[in-house]
Design goal:
The protein is an alpha+beta fold. The protein has two domains: 43-235, CheC-like (Chemotaxis protein chec); 259-275 and 285-324, Surface presentation of antigens (SPOA). The protein is 34% helix and 24% strand. The protein contains eleven helices and ten strands. It has helices at 7-19, 24-34, 49-74, 90-96, 121-131, 147-161, 164-167, 219-222, 231-235, 244-255, 272-276, and strands at 78-89, 102-107, 114-119, 177-182, 196-206, 209-218, 261-264, 294-298, 301-311, 314-322. The strands form two sheets. The chain has a six-stranded antiparallel β-sheet. Strands 7-8-9-10 form a four-stranded antiparallel β-sheet, with no helix packed on it. The longest helix is centred in the N-terminal third of the chain and has 26 residues, at 49-74. It is extended, with a radius of gyration of 35 Å. The model is unreliable at 326-331 (pLDDT under 50). Its main location: other. Pfam families: FliM, FliMN_C.
């Protein structure tokens, strides 16, 4: 938003124009200079702000799912939320990752390419300590991971990342598959250094330990579904085609549903005082005559009229006619 000038500043500008200290051409040149923007081709912005917002919404849902999943698995306080979502070159992301950390690579068939999840070692060790029955103490010794520790961490995050398919279900049907476990980012080369990637950073708290989980998604992975990440796609309301067997199944369930049927003898209005004074043997006068047809209600809706009687020595009611009128009548 442009700065708002005070009245004294406006008077000073008008005075400078009148005295010749400044000219209108100077303002035009300044305006033209402002139109020039510096563009770094090494940091090509290939995602629109709308698409970044959509990815943020998807991973906010993913963060909520992970919070529930890890809380149940670790049986301790877990809080995960999205901190940021940025697009940067892959090389810049790799340089920002610690030299020794927890790196999990996943494939997302049917989408091409792979994505990377980087977990802060403090978080990873705290989770592993809880899984093995500890208090969630974090000891960063990622450079000396044993085979057992590697297996436990891989399985823990492999099962957790399966929840990504639920978070992405609104834009694509994916089946995350664990592909590789690594601790040194220099040994990973998923895409070219200048490839644009989206990095979603998740603030993670496990008990008293906190750290970051970063999800790196290359542009090549998202390219086939980019149109679905636009705001217009999210606002669309698509009519779902109902299959004939679904309709038949619904009709069958409706036909076997139980509904209350009430034959109403009549109604009466009395005061609270009279109601409190009622006793055995008292008579309440109804608003209907003995020979008037009774109203039969289905649920709370009057649908028929009938007359009382007996059938096989049991109380019964004979339907006389169907009541019509209102929005409830489709006949």
């Amino acid at each position: 938003m442009a700065d708002v000038l005070s009245q004294s500043e406006i008077d000073a500008l008008l005075s400078a124009l009148n005295t010749g200290e400044m000219s209108a051409d100077d303002f035009k040149k300044e305006e033209e200079e402002r139109k020039v923007k510096v563009y770094d081709f090494k940091r090509a912005l290939r995602f629109s702000k709308d698409q970044i917002r959509s990815l943020t919404r998807i991973h906010e849902n993913f963060a909520r799912i992970l919070t529930t999943y890890f809380s149940a698995q670790l049986r301790t306080y877990v809080q995960i939320n999205v901190a940021s979502a940025d697009q940067i070159p892959y090389e810049e992301f790799i340089r920002s990752v610690p030299k020794m950390t927890i790196l999990n690579v996943y494939e997302l068939p049917p989408l091409d390419g792979r994505i990377l999840m980087e977990i802060n070692p403090n978080i990873a060790y705290s989770m592993m300590d809880r899984v093995m029955g500890g208090k969630g103490v974090s000891v960063n010794k990622v450079e000396n991971l044993t085979e057992i520790e590697t297996t436990i961490m891989s399985q823990l995050f492999e099962r957790a990342f399966e929840n990504l398919s639920e978070a992405w279900s609104t834009v694509a049907d994916i089946d995350p598959v664990f592909a590789e476990f690594e601790v040194n980012p220099q040994f990973l080369q998923m895409v070219s250094p200048n490839e644009t990637v989206v990095v979603i950073s998740l603030n993670t708290t496990i008990g008293e330990t906190s750290g970051m989980i970063n999800i790196c998604i290359p542009h090549v992975v998202l390219e086939p579904i980019l149109p679905k990440l636009s705001g217009s796609y999210w606002m669309e309301t698509k009519k779902k085609d109902i299959k004939p067997e679904e309709t038949a199944n619904l009709e069958k369930r409706i036909k076997t549903a139980n509904v209350p049927v009430v034959a109403e003898l009549g109604i009466s209005e009395i005061s609270i005082e009279d109601f409190l004074m009622l006793d055995s043997g008292d008579v309440i006068q109804l608003n209907a005559r003995i020979d008037d047809p009774l109203t039969i209600k289905i649920g709370e809706i009057p649908k028929f009229t009938g007359q009382p009687g007996k059938s096989n020595n049991k109380l019964a009611i004979q339907i006389l006619e169907t009541l019509k009128g209102g929005d409830d009548d489709d006949e």
